[in-house]
Amino acid sequence: MAHDIVIRGGTVVDGTGSAAFTGDVAIDGGRIVSVGGKAGPGRQEVDADGLVVTPGFVDIHTHLDAQIGWDPLLTPVSWHGVTTALLGNCGVTFAPCKPADRPLLAAMMETVEDIPREAILGGLSWEWESYGEYLDALDKLNPAINVAGMVGHSALRWYVMGERSVEGESTPEEKAEMARIIGQAMDDGAVGFSSNRFPGHVGPDGRSIPGTFADHDEVVAIGHAVAARDGLMQNVVDFGRKDMASGALLRRLAAECRARVLFSYTVGGSPDSGRRNAEYLERLSEGGLDITALSLPRGTGFVFGLQSRIPAKNIWSQRGFFGPAWEALGAGDLEARLAMLRNTETRAALVAEAKAVDPSRLPWVEGAYWMGASETPNYLEPAANSLGAMARNAGEHWSETFFRLSLESGGRGLFTWRMFSANIEAVRDFLPHPQVMPGLSDAGAHVSQVMDCGVTSFILSHWVRDEGLFTLEEGVRKLTSGPARVIGLKDRGVLAPGMRADINVLDLAAIGEKYPRVVRDFPGGVPRYVQGSTGYHATFVNGELAFRDGEHAGGRSGRVLRGARARVAA
Predict the structure, then answer these.
(1) How many other β-carbons are positioned within 10 Å of the β-carbon of residue 373?
(2) How far apart, in whole angstroms, are the C-alpha atoms of residue 562 and residue 564?
(3) How far does CA 123 lie from the centroid of its chain?
(4) What number of helices (H) and strands (E) belong to the chain?
(5) Averaged pLDDT score across all residues of the chain
(6) Is 152 helix (H, G, I), strand (E, B) or coil?
(7) If residue 263 lies in a helix (H) or strand (E), which one and from where to where?
(8) Confidence of residue 570 (pLDDT cuts 50, 70, 90)
(9) 191, 150 in Cβ contact below 8 A?
(10) Are 241 and 208 spatial neighbours (Cβ–Cβ below 8 Å)?
(11) pLDDT score for 308
């Protein structure tokens, strides 16, 4: 009998880190039934000669919790080979949630992750209270790729403590109740818990979100309930605070609870920051603790240009910051902005207003880099060639350089302000560490500020193909079985008989990212960046063709992946 699908004659990179080999991959009933050798006929066959066959990629840091409600294709990460996305990071989620608290959780997600609350409130069904009911609601959306979810500390704490959750300490009874609820959430399908200790992440009233200052015993009590169910403890830490600088809480979660621990950890702008980060991670996990750092594979932080907005208070203009000419520039669409810049008098007024601003109020001028104007964005402009440096070399004010390049690119060109992982050599030193996973796409969040959904493609194109920092086998492992293990997925991330058939067929020579662009496809016409891909011949999700050549091929076969106790039902 014929197989459902046979991927024929490709270079198989199985996700384990083992050496690649040439052979066929056969799929029946959504599972892989054979890998290697010559498979029998398939009702659907894919000619993979000259192509690479890998497991689907696993993105373990997204905020697609809201976007999935109106975009079940989960773009643009799904265009870049991602077949499983982890929701619920950074302590902010939409469940558990009492009906009266829906506007608050929506507003909290807006202030922390830049997802408009109107889109959240209008784009989701809100037919849940418990986290399990939230996952049930996601099931009904028939997503194109798989999703798994964590419970956020802020939602859980507010659900139990109400207003006191922002700044108050929990009682022993409240700690026990939070542990009980998280246990039930995991029994219903959550794969873990996320907590956020960074004071700069604030709610709609300007105060740090619930859980930021919770005592360690509260998080550890929750950690015991999570670890007992083979779950993940994800953390945003604040290394500026004394208790976190030593990693005390992370070590307690790993040592006392025996939990898998994940935290976000990017390098800085100094060349030695990668080495120092690696040394710190060694100390943090001393004794064999299961602690994983998730780190950006390139510099990022804020993308801006004429087609979007500049990072002056996160808006194009503000009264008293630049002036009326900039305010008028920000009010128009791209064509109106280009017309203004082509007017000599208007452009002179814009430059004059920019020159009147104290340069110390514009730190991004010296930290922003031109991404070019070709089909592929340039993320590797040398550190000495910032916007400010380009202006000085050209004998211009930074605004004149900005306007000149904007006009030359038809308004399409962008700059990126490297706020995180600013030194690419430091990134090179840190990423190979065995306890580091590259990622932090932040998909679904900061949608009008940054675009890193193509980081999987960047890892393959830059760090594997162009630089050779990783072998192909190791680069694929860090995108597949590595992050799958962190989540606790035991049936994905590896090409082997019996595993779920989440598979990419790709052309390594052609893998890349297209230039980011602004679209208005969120509810209410809210703008966001998207970024296409090149080199992805086919992406299968649970044994069905979901994407071909980086575009949706019609399949909506993704699943809500439930935690260890509930996964049998999936």
Answers:
(1) 16
(2) 7
(3) 20
(4) 19, 24
(5) 94
(6) strand
(7) strand 260-264
(8) very low
(9) yes
(10) no
(11) 84
Burial class (CB in 10 A: 0-12, 13-18, 19+), 541: buried
User: Which residues, including other chains, have CB under 8 Å from residue 358's CB and lie 6 or more apart?
Assistant: none
Q: Is the peptide bond before 96 cis (omega within 30 degrees of 0)?
A: yes
Tell me the pTM: 0.96
Own/partner long-range contacts of 103-111 (Cβ < 8 Å, ≥24 apart): 104/158, 104/203, 104/204, 105/154, 105/155, 105/158, 107/203, 107/204, 108/154, 108/203, 108/204, 108/209, 109/63, 109/65, 109/66, 110/204, 111/201, 111/202, 111/203, 111/204
- The first and second tokens of residue 48, run together, are 């993979």
- For residue 4, give every residue at least 6 positions away whose Cβ sits within 8 Å of its Cβ, in sequence order, or none: 27, 28, 29, 42, 43, 44, 543
State both tokens at 480. 């597949």
Q: Are 391 and 400 in contact (CB under 8 A)?
A: yes
Cα–Cα nearest to 108, from 198, 234, 212, 202: 202
Torsion, Cα 136 142 146 151, to 10 degrees, reads: -30
**CB of 472 closer than 8 Å to CB of 52:** yes
3-state secondary structure of 557: coil
What are the structure tokens assigned to 390, written together? 């380009």
Is the omega angle on the peptide bond into residue 76 within 30 degrees of 0, that is, cis?
A: yes
pLDDT, tens digit (0-9, with 9 covering 90-100), for 293-317:
999 999 999 999 998 876 654 445 5
What distance, in Å, lies between the first and last C-alpha atoms of the chain?
27
Ramachandran assignment for 161, one of left (phi > 0), alpha (psi -120 to 50 degrees), beta (any other): alpha
Q: What pLDDT, in 10s, does the model give residues 190-206? A: 999 999 999 999 999 99
HEC secondary structure over 411-423: CCCEEEEEEECCC
Four-CA torsion 188, 192, 198, 204, nearest 10 degrees: -20
- Report the half-sphere exposure of 209 (CA within 13 A, side-chain side): 31
Residues 6+ apart with CB under 8 A from 68: 74, 87, 138, 141, 143, 147, 444
Residues 210-269: tens digit of each pLDDT: 999 999 999 999 999 999 999 999 999 887 765 555 689 999 999 999 999 999 999 999
Asked if residue 252 lies in contact with residue 216, where contact means CB atoms within 8 angstroms, the answer is yes
Q: Which two tokens stand for residue 32?
A: 């892989």
Contact present, 257 and 224 (Cβ < 8 Å): yes
Q: What angle do CA 436, 419, 453 make, to 5 degrees?
A: 60
**C-alpha–C-alpha distance, residues 261 and 446, integer Å:** 25
String of DSSP letters for 49-85: TTSEEEEPEEE--B-TTTGGGT-TT-TTGGGGTEEEE
* Amino acid symbol at 395: G
> How many other CB atoms sit within 10 Å of the CB of residue 505?
22
* 30 class by beta-carbon count within 10 Å (0-12 exposed, 13-18 middle, 19+ buried): middle
Residues 24, 37: Cα–Cα separation, whole Å: 6
The string of DSSP letters for 489-514 reads -SSSSS-STTSB--EEEE-GGG-EEP
Indicate the residue type of 238: D
For the residues 123-149, what does the mean pLDDT come to?
A: 97
- CA distances in angstroms from 332 to 414, 416, 530, listed in the order given: 17, 22, 21
